Amino acid sequence: HKAKVEAMTLDLASLQSVQHFAEAFKSKNVPLHILICNAAMFGAPWCLTEDDLESTFQVNHLGHFYLVQLLKDVLRQSSPARVVVVSSESHRFTEIKDSSGKLDFNLLSPSKKEYWAMLAYNRSKLCNILFSNELNRRLSPHGVTSNSVHPGNMIYSSIHRNWWVYTLLFTLARPFTKSM
After folding, report:
1. pLDDT for position 180
2. Which residues of the chain have pLDDT under 50?
3. Do the Cβ atoms of 66 and 14 come closer than 8 Å?
4. What's the chain's average pLDDT?
5. What is the reported pLDDT for 164?
């Protein structure tokens, strides 16, 4: 009941917007005890952001990654603090390494020819989990924990609205997934 909540806008498809947001937040000189990275897009057609990166990767992962990097000193100073990265069980259905086992950056921000919306989403969510794990490893000694979570079907969203096949898939899978 004593919490003060203030909304600020941020466009994860623009690294400049992320930077402006972080600067505006820091200028307020307020603590940051919890940061929830929850924005995502799914099933969208291939397109590039103003930063020339594939939009699903940038919005779902890179924008959050950059935001946390810009705010990690504030999080450390606010200790105890927590970062929650909303990911997805779909991360299990992809890989981001090439045949020799090395990270393949071309898989993260693929060309139009190599793009498949479902894989782009899955890869971005795998990146979320790897990032959260590494963030926890690096910042937990400083009082900042990081967790990645799968939201389940507790709350309905229209993330699958871009194509009727995805809507059908979500509708059919819903009874077999965890819910409240």
Report:
1. 47
2. 154, 180
3. no
4. 85
5. 62
Residues that are catalytic: 121
* DSSP H helices in the chain: 15-27, 55-57, 63-77, 105-108, 117-139, 164-173
15-149 has which CATH code? Answer: 3.40.50.720
Tens-digit pLDDT profile for residues 93-141: 577 766 777 777 777 788 899 898 888 988 899 899 999 999 999 999 9
CA angle 93, 52, 71 (to 5 degrees): 75
d(CA 96, CA 94): 7
Residues 123, 128: Cα–Cα separation, whole Å: 9
Distance CA 113, CA 51 (A): 19
Nearest-angstrom CA–CA distance, 126 and 120: 10
Distance CA 165, CA 108 (A): 23
> What is residue 37's three-state secondary structure?
strand
Token pair listed for 43: 């099933």
**What is the predicted pLDDT for the residue at 151?**
73
- The position carrying tokens 């979570």 is 149
Q: Where are the domains of the chain?
A: 15-149
Instruction: Give the residues across from 147 on adjacent strands.
Output: 84
Query: What's the residue count for the chain?
Result: 180
Q: Are strands 34-37 and 81-86 parallel, antiparallel or unpaired?
A: parallel
